[in-house]
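Appendix B. Chain record.
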Amino acid sequence: MRRGWWVVALSASVSASAQTQAGAKRVDGLSYDMRMTTTPTAGTGLATAMGNVAQSYAGHATVVGSRGRLDVIEGGLQPLFTKGDYLLYDSTGITIVHPAKQEYIPLSAELNNSKIFDQMQAMGVTMSIADLKVAMDSLAGTDSVAGFPTRHFRMTLAFSMSIDASFMQQRFATESITDYWIANVPGLPSNPLLRVNAINASSPAPMGAFKDISTKVDSMAARLGNAAALKTKTVSRLIQGPGANMTTEQTSEVSNVQRATVDETTLVVPAGYRRVSITG
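Structure tokens predicted for this chain:
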């Protein structure tokens, strides 16, 4: 949750990612560099057991139209991907590709799999959301990011969750405040990696208790239009009860945006790669 890839949750399958093309087709596009860092800034009690680990990754991206590829050149987001892997994305979702293993994970489809919720219900586990709050505000100021003047927006997402099962009852509240610095850069599409809650926010058909959250987040995010987020900062707080809370900060920033010639065959999963699941 704190890493921004659980509610979201992180989604619909990126069908284009599973296609292959014969022969190289080079077209005009863009390239840029991106860095994302997640850092726990404070934590007490049981909340820290949910992942008190700093993680970061840096990558080089190429984009053509609404499709893009991010090659991870440093760090990673364990256990999803690491240096040497790459992510394919478009406006609807993300696919993770592991070249060393010749495998890929259509992450959006995995997180949108209704079977996960069916299995939880079969085990007697139910989840419910309450006190949902989603707001988007426009802030003053025109900072420059990657050489482009930006507009500054802030999204606030807060809710409480209950997880009930025969062997456990868990209650917690969460709040995340995300600042966006956005710009209209010709040829640079909106990147789902840079949206609120990152990977899981790209689902057009979320399941279970998270449906209302994702619907309202997407409605608020529509205010950003087709602009690209060149910089984001999210401060998330998870509260499990008195003496049990954790605060996490996640930042991302785009740099070195420039024109590039892109081989379109690099924007799809290579032929022969095996589809795998995040659950193994």
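Further analysis of this model is presented in Appendix C.
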